[in-house]
Design brief:
This protein has 427 residues and is of the alpha/beta class. It has a single domain, classed as FAD/NAD(P)-binding domain (3-Layer(bba) Sandwich). 32% of the residues lie in helices and 25% in strands. The chain contains twelve helices and 22 strands. The strands form four sheets. Strands 5, 7, 8, 9, 16, 17, 18, 19 and 20 form a nine-stranded mixed β-sheet that branches. α1 runs parallel beside α11. It is globular and about 65 Å long. This is D-amino-acid dehydrogenase. Pfam families: DAO. It comes from Pseudonocardia ammonioxydans. One of its GO terms (molecular function) is oxidoreductase activity.
């Protein structure tokens, strides 16, 4: 084995494992603090869950994933291939252990405890994006769009009540979500692309959205502009800290030593982090998406909470509308299951007009790293110099830049923000 030591005179050398939004945002902030950074990605930049997601920067909807409503649907519903939250009926001890832990956090008390953490994180999530875009040097040159407004659409007022109850709890517990109710006529006037299946809605203010694939690639360009190295197509098999300085081992027998290593490898986080004391299970919660070309592309994101479907205009009219959904607890390396795409299509079709779902393109599945308590794993491990940044579930894009900022400050300056204490990977 050939081991290379990366060290610059008076400069900390840091290796980030993972080329998604979380890893690249961490690299960007480390560079701003004066570190020399290399990002190592086993496939390509944004190849994981950073590419095909909905791209929402929506504090109003960035809430704890383990919620009482999931258990209320019943075990039988969770086993249905058409369910928006799906568990394959197979004997998998690791998955079973995760589900038991997840279920324990699907209580109102646990949800409200986690909600306090999300309220604190959401308060700075959008300004963290502004920091990336507003930087004079090595800023991210990809637009962040204001949702004016973001729209939640429903088949009935009874369906709408679930989202309103969440908003009321957020506002009661110290957060702030600004919204207005829309009747049948108002919701269709606001968005003509909605079909007869929509009878009412909620107009949500203060949210934003991006084209996630383009934004992450622009972030990678910013890292390279600032002198960072991004290496793709290299598989990391382990990180060893026994020799005093962390060493990253590769499948080809090569190795790199550095002052610090950040593990930001998404749904595969546990494979590298467990030996460093990170015991909380990380399970892939796979999301699916595809793109359609409506007769009239909506200008703003649309959310169907009952169906758990998120729709995002990707840019100009020719870019189409991304339709995303599903939470499938399954192995992250399993192939795309076309039944999940069909289930999203069936659920979305009556909610739109002027959309040919048979002509959908860019079918995609991505593995989101979920934890049993719904909180990310960000911070120091038991091995000196080894850190983790992952476990964000559905909120890696929403919280990625904030994660990078907080972790970089901890690594470079020893600062531990209160939000980071709640994300402690050794909890």
């Amino acid at each position: 084995m050939i081991t290379r030591t990366l060290r610059y005179m008076g400069t900390q050398r840091i290796v980030v494992v993972g080329g998604g939004i979380v890893g690249l945002a961490t690299a960007w902030h480390l560079q701003r603090g004066g570190a020399e950074v290399s990002v190592v990605e086993r496939r390509e930049v944004a190849a994981g869950s950073s590419w095909g997601n909905a791209g929402w920067l929506a504090p109003a909807l960035t809430l704890p994933l383990p919620e009482p409503a999931i258990l209320a649907t019943g075990i039988r519903a969770l086993l249905s291939p058409k369910s928006p939250v799906y568990v394959p009926p197979r004997l998998d001890p690791k998955l079973l252990g995760f589900l038991v832990g997840f279920a324990r956090h699907c209580t109102d008390r646990k949800w409200r405890q986690a909600l306090q953490v999300f309220i604190a994180a959401n308060a700075s999530a959008l300004t963290a994006y502004d920091e990336l875009s507003d930087a004079v040097e090595a800023g991210v040159e990809e637009p962040i769009k204001a949702a004016s407004p973001m729209l939640a659409a429903f088949a009935s007022e009874a369906d709408r009540e679930g989202l309103l109850a969440e908003f009321r709890r957020v506002n009661t517990d110290g957060g702030r979500t600004d919204y207005a109710l829309l009747d049948d006529a108002a919701v269709h006037e606001l968005e003509p692309a909605l079909g007869p299946g929509v009878r009412c809605g909620v107009q949500i203010e203060g949210q934003r959205f991006i084209n996630p694939g383009r934004f992450v690639h622009a972030l990678a360009d910013a890292v390279k502009t600032a002198g960072g190295e991004i290496v793709t197509g290299r598989v990391v098999t382990g990180v060893d800290g026994d020799g005093g300085r962390p060493r990253v081992d590769f499948a080809d027998g090569d190795a790199i030593e550095a002052d610090h290593v950040v593990l930001a490898n998404g749904a595969w986080l546990g494979r590298l982090a467990r030996k460093h004391g990170v015991r909380r299970l990380v399970q892939a919660g796979r999301g699916y998406s595809f793109t359609v070309q409506p007769d009239s592309t909506p200008r703003n994101p649309i959310y169907f909470p009952t169906q758990r479907i998120a729709c995002t205009p990707l840019g100009g009219p020719e870019d189409g509308l991304r339709v995303a959904g599903m939470m499938e607890f399954r192995d992250p390396d399993d192939p795309l299951d076309p039944r999940r795409v069909d289930a999203i299509t069936e659920a979305a079709r009556p909610m739109f007009t002027g959309v040919d779902f048979a002509a959908r393109r860019d079918e995609w599945v991505g593995s989101r790293p979920c934890t049993t308590d719904g909180l990310p794993l960000v911070g120091r491990t038991r091995t000196p110099g080894v850190h983790v940044a992952g476990g964000h579930g559905m909120w890696g894009v929403a919280l990625g830049p904030l994660t990078g900022r907080l972790l970089a400050r901890q690594i470079l300056h020893g600062e531990t923000d209160p939000v980071l204490r709640s994300f402690d990977p050794l909890r």
